Amino acid sequence: MTWREQLGPVGVWRGVAAVSTELAVEVERLGFGAIWLGGSPGSDLRHPEALLDATATITIATGIVNIWSSDAAELAASFHRIEARHPGRLLLGIGTGHREATAERTRPLDAMQRYLDVLDESGVPRDRRVLSALGPKMLAISAERSAGTHPYLTIPRQTAEQREALGPHALVAPEQTVVLDTDPASARASARGFLANYLRLVNYTTTMRRGGFSEDDVAAPGTDHLVDAIVRHGDAAALAAAARAHLDEGADHVCLQVVPAQDDPLPAYRAVAAALGLPAT
């Protein structure tokens, strides 16, 4: 089974605390193939387990478990507990976060290797974990020691680069932020509100510059050129096209994050699912 067959072409991304069992059931009914839980889910994985208990087939993925705040041995034990009850439906997204939020974040590449060593020793399969790899060195680790990559705030040209680097069989599952709003001014205001924190974080601005954006583009509050490329806005057809753009460049699966985060995301999910022709039940 290919990754696109397993996960479906499109899933949703939302902070773990904002995903209820009711929301998960409706996302599954709409035909999305996976729910990615952001906001550093804890290594006990109790919330992902509850979502799996409430649904039937959808994959639940962590997007991402932060290695600095989640114990690797506990994560492995949680994986095996859930795998015994819901075989094949949990995917571990793992990452190192950003240095501004984690004082102990030093030598993240070495730290990731040690974390993966523990998962290996605990029997967590390589093909059931994926790394958030923004830079080339972490991408190389993801190619060697995981199923692939789950990048955040990247554009389709970077998806093509990741596919080329990882080869044809690895999982490439980028996040794509979207605003369901046909008024450019208000949509950009929502997008800038979302991007404000990320434009203060070096790992994301570095990734944006790798994607072809200039210093002026990434300087807060971000140019329209950057804002429109990173956070796609418009009607449902435009948001569906944003997902397809990554798929056309080699992604197996795209997870859509709807902003503003405090709004009910279901109207946007329903509209985009219809525009994509997802197999609702």
UniProtKB/TrEMBL annotation:
Domain Luciferase-like per the UniProt entry, residue ranges? 21-109
Q: Which GO terms describe its molecular function?
A: oxidoreductase activity, acting on paired donors, with incorporation or reduction of molecular oxygen
InterPro entries tied to this protein? Bact_Lucif_Oxidored (IPR050766), Lucif-like_OxRdatse_MSMEG_4141 (IPR019922), Luciferase-like_dom (IPR011251), Luciferase-like_sf (IPR036661)
Instruction: Look up the domain of life of the source.
Output: Bacteria
A Gene Ontology term for the protein's cellular component? cytosol
Write down the PANTHER family for this protein, in alphabetical order.
CONSERVED PROTEIN, LUCIFERASE-LIKE MONOOXYGENASE
The protein here is known as Putative F420-dependent oxidoreductase
Species name? Amnibacterium kyonggiense
Q: What is the lineage of its organism?
A: Bacteria, Bacillati, Actinomycetota, Actinomycetes, Micrococcales
